[in-house]
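Sample 3 of the quickstart, ligand heme C:
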Amino acid sequence: MSGRTWVSCFVASALLPMVAAADPSAARQGELIHLLRHDCGSCHGLTLKGGLGPPLLPATLDGLPAEGLVAIILDGVPGKPMPPWRGLLPEGEVAWLVEQLQAGAIDVE
Ligand code: HEC
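Result:
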């Protein structure tokens, strides 16, 4: 992984609609999945099986409290490459993503 391409790709895909409601709209869900594969995937692996960051598969996330995972995504892990997404992703969208990840609802073919 080199440079900051994930940042620009991310900005292009994420700064569109900021949905504050419970579940993101269907269109926004598609964008979030895209972001997960491409932006999170740059470190966690395109198929989320791990890379620089640990795997984000149900087997690895199972048993971890969802709130803890949401907090890691919002605030990052200080001293580690995991960046904070607060300000870029609203908490509701992060919670939705964690739900999808823990449920294995994301097709990672
Ligand atoms: C620049 C690389 C990088 C990017 C981009 C990145 N992560 Fe991470 N992530 C990491 C690293 C490294 C860790 C492990 C931190 C540690 O050692 O505690 C991590 C940890 C995590 C964890 C905790 C996993 C666990 O088993 O405790 C979650 C959840 C997570 N990332 C989700 C995401 C999501 C969702 C995105 C995209 C919105 C993302 N990450 C983007 C590098 C990254």
